[in-house]
Amino acid sequence: MASRVNEIAGFAPCESHGLNVGANIVRILAGAWRGSAAPLDLTVRELNEAVPLLLGTGAGSLGWRRVARLPVSSSAAAFKLRQAYRHHTLQAAIHEDQLQRLLVRLRKARVEPILCKGWSMARLYAEPGLRPYGDHDLCVTAAETAPAMEVLNEAGGRCGQVDLHQCVPDLRDRRWTEIRARCQEVLLGEVPVRVLGPEDNLRLLCVHFWRHGAMRPLWLCDVAVCLESLPDHFDWDYCLHGSAACADWIRCVVSLAKNLLGARCAGPACPLALHDIPGWLVPAVLWRWCFGIDLPPFTNHLRQPARLPLAIFNRWFNPIRSSYRCLRPAVMADRPGNTLEAFRTGGSAHGQMPRTATPCARGLRHSSRSGHGIKITTPNKRGSATGQPLRRKTPGKPRNH
């Protein structure tokens, strides 16, 4: 598997020392979401290097599922993965109970939200605890925002962390009526849950991975799980409809899920050229995974000037994220001009994506926390030219989306 990753990435083993940890993460996560995965040959040293990154990006449960029957399962590093698996399994049961009570309250107030990410993805894994999440992403119309906020305030945090959106994030080029018409209802216990249709869900997962610069390997696992769950009537034309750059990145993210993680595409034949992706993309993803998500404060490097160039590169020169900010296809994403243009336009992840004319589907501008763990995301009425989000920082642990 390691040689296969090196072959895809286009580098020789002797040249890939800085990317070996990323390659090991790929080996561990490949097929981990299924009921059974291929055998894995992993040393204790390789596991020790990968465990902090797996835990830091929410993939600890998947890591334990892969190593549970290996000789390295008795190591101290594997014990950390096992503890994460136990914790996430318990949290999954708590989140499901909270979500059921929340949806019952909202429906009494005549609010019909659409759930995206979170439980809507966790239900597709072999076990709910394999896909941790920290909040419930609920999407409503502008008219439903006020009654939804009243319900959440009355709940007083008893329904967990809630991320309330007007329209659907990362689907700003889709009309609300179109998204709503394609939604599906699935049961959580005895409570019906409205989730995105398969086409919108795959598009959202790919754009979310692209927008955040491929930061978490767990998000690519989401894409892989979604691909293996596609129905026979999946409409690729609708999924790819819209911006040419966005369609190109959906193709690239799907290719990464298939070539790196071994995802099997269910449903109708995929019309995308999945093996024709830029040569820089796989090394860029593996390189990003080598550093996890918790980058140290930039001021920590001021006392060690020799590390400044690498710190600057890791923090700002991400060709994947820059291509989203500038709406560039993958074939142009590694050009230095994209990073400069991202700085010139304010570096917003919200400013350049094409949008529909529907008011509630405009770019998401304002984000703040209020009340009991409630995060409200609404269109910015000020019409900021740069689209820079206005955020109020609050203490707390980083969330798993």
- Mean pLDDT over the residues: 79
Name the structural class. Answer: alpha/beta
Strand order of the largest sheet: 1-2-3-7-6-8
Rg over CA atoms: 21 Å
Question: What number of domains?
Answer: 1
Spatial separation of the terminal alpha carbons: 28 Å
Count, helices: 16
Sheet of most strands: 6 strands, mixed
Q: What's the overall geometry?
A: globular
Instruction: List the helices and strands in order.
Output: HHHHHEHEHEHEEHHHHHHHHEEE
Strand content: 5-15%
| Low-confidence sequence ranges | 6-15, 336-372, 379-398
Helical percentage? 40-55%
**Got a strand count?**
8
Description:
By secondary structure, the protein is an alpha/beta fold. It has one domain. It has 16 helices and 8 strands. The protein has helices at 2-9, 20-29, 44-56, 60-67, 76-108, 119-122, 142-155, 176-181, 198-211, 217-227, 236-240, 244-261, 281-290, 308-316, 319-326, 336-344, and strands at 114-116, 136-140, 162-166, 184-188, 191-195, 364-370, 374-379, 390-391. Strands 1-2-3-7-6-8 form a 6-stranded mixed sheet. A hairpin with a 3-residue loop joins strand 6 (364-370) and strand 7 (374-379). Helix 9 (198-211) crosses helix 12 (244-261), helix 10 (217-227) packs across helix 12 and helix 15 packs across helix 16. The longest helix is centred in the N-terminal third of the chain and has 33 residues, at 76-108. The model is unreliable at 6-15, 336-372 and 379-398 (pLDDT under 50).
Summarize the structure.
Helices cover 45% and strands 9% of the residues. By secondary structure, it is of the alpha/beta class.
